[in-house]
Amino acid sequence: MKRFGRLVAVRALDLQVEPGQVFGFLGQNGAGKTTTIRMLLDLLRPTAGRAEILGHDCQADGLAARALVGYMPGEIGFYRDMTGRRALGVLAELARGAVRADRQRELCERMALDDADLDRPIREYSTGMKRKLAAVAAFQHDPPVLLLDEPTEGLDPLMQEAFYELLADARAGGTTVFLSSHVLSEVDRVCDRIGLLRAGELVLTAPIGEVRRTAPRLVRVTFRRPVAGPPSAWPPSIEIVEVAAARWIVRAYGSIGPVVESLGGLPVADLEVREPRLEDVVMAYYRGQQ
Amino acid sequence: MTRETAALVRHSARRFRAPVAIAAAALGAFQVLLCLAARELQREGMFQQILGLIPPFARELFGPVLVSMMSFPGIMALGYYHVAIVAVLVGLVIAIATEPAGEVETGFADLVLARAVPRGAVMTRSIVLLAGGAACVVAAMAVGTFFGLWLVGPAEASKPASSLVWKLAFSLWCVLACWGGVSLAIGAAARRRAVAASMAGSAAAALMLVDYLARFWKPARGAARLSPFHYYNPLDLVIGKPLPLGDIAVLLGTGAATAALAYLVFARRDL
Fold first, then answer.
1. How far apart are the first and last CA of chain B?
2. Which CATH superfamily is domain A2-210 in?
3. Out of B4, B8, B114, whose CB is closest to A41?
4. Which of B177, B206, B211, B246 has the lowest CB atom count within 10 Å?
5. Cβ separation A63–B271 shorter than 8 A
6. Phi, psi at A14, each rounded to 5°
7. CATH fold group of domain A215-286
8. What is the pLDDT of residues B136-170, one digit of tens each?
């Protein structure tokens, strides 16, 4: 738990991320995602409770825990008058694991930071360039754990793609990734498991496939001619979204069999089923419906 | 010093080398100019003339300090006690000491302390820079003084002893070390550098004024004991008094105690 005066930023959070897993930490702005990550890094001290990184207590054994971590903050705080190369150099010197020059060069190339960019002062960098530099700084010592706070915010689509590839390589190498985001498509694409934080409380934690399975499917039914409204006694697993003369849209939780059964005898022209999406589940949680 | 602390020291030294070098060059050159000015005043017999113009009550009020100011060593020592120079130097140590607050404000502290760097390393880095930066500037002043004495110093008999220059420089360094510790403690607790610097600067200005006031107004003398400047009397050294070890102990003790407080505060706070 973390309290700032009267505000409880994180209240009930009990989760475990398995080694080698990519964990998506979701939540709206102010839900407590960054606070959680900063507690893992011992930048904030929890009011109550404890956390561990690969068996090291984040507070009592914080140095050992942080030696295993690569961190990409949500707000990048480089000195504006430093060059990108100098910033990477300072952060490389502070990393316990030695940083190989060829690895740093490779990461810079993958994030499209050339020598001219690296020799410019950071005050001349755009937000996206600072993010790319922060990504290199987080990955350059090949840490076994990555804590990434909204890592693709401000990156253009090409660089987002390059970043996802970096992440995929890290995952293939056995790196554990804890990624906070509110970009659901990104989480859907890269994460194995998600945790959803709402107002400082963990309201959902599940493998991403399972979350998708629990998501409702949107079924659009088109009729050959106008029909009367839907029957009053629909099965409870079906929810009406929209009703028009010759078109119904319903949300089906679980199997769509009950929808098909309910349409018996009606002049159905077409049935379109949209696959369940992570967004649908998460948005429902955001709205407090589940 | 750990590897991480050494890396932080190198990084910050690079950031502060320009202001420290400029202050050292300017104040070193100023000491040379003061020696030149003192020689001119002495050559033209101005010291005696000025002293003759001062009314007896003023002489009584200021005591032997006034006479010591109106001498070659008194003018030579001006750089070590003039309020503007002391203010510049205190400003420099405040700038160095509030770097941790600036790093918290910009988020650079997050990048540094998210690695296996103990929070104490940030404080140790600042202490090394404070002690080293102040020593560089004060040493440059001493070198400027020696160069001025070599260039235009009076005859051997009335030439100020080199030990006086070192004592003046050391006393000034002690005041700066004290203010460095106080500013570091403020900087360790602050979230914004401007707030920390203005708090430390206001405290320095207020306590300097209290010390000045106490020199002329008895009721302020009790409060003046709270001012580090109360324990810094370079003109006493000029008139031949020994280095006041008690005052030096107070200055260094305050600097050490406030630096220890800074470690404690920075280790316990949320960043």
1. 24
2. P-loop containing nucleotide triphosphate hydrolases (3.40.50.300)
3. B114
4. B246
5. no
6. -135, 100
7. Alpha-Beta Plaits (3.30.70)
8. 999 999 999 999 989 887 776 567 888 999 999 99
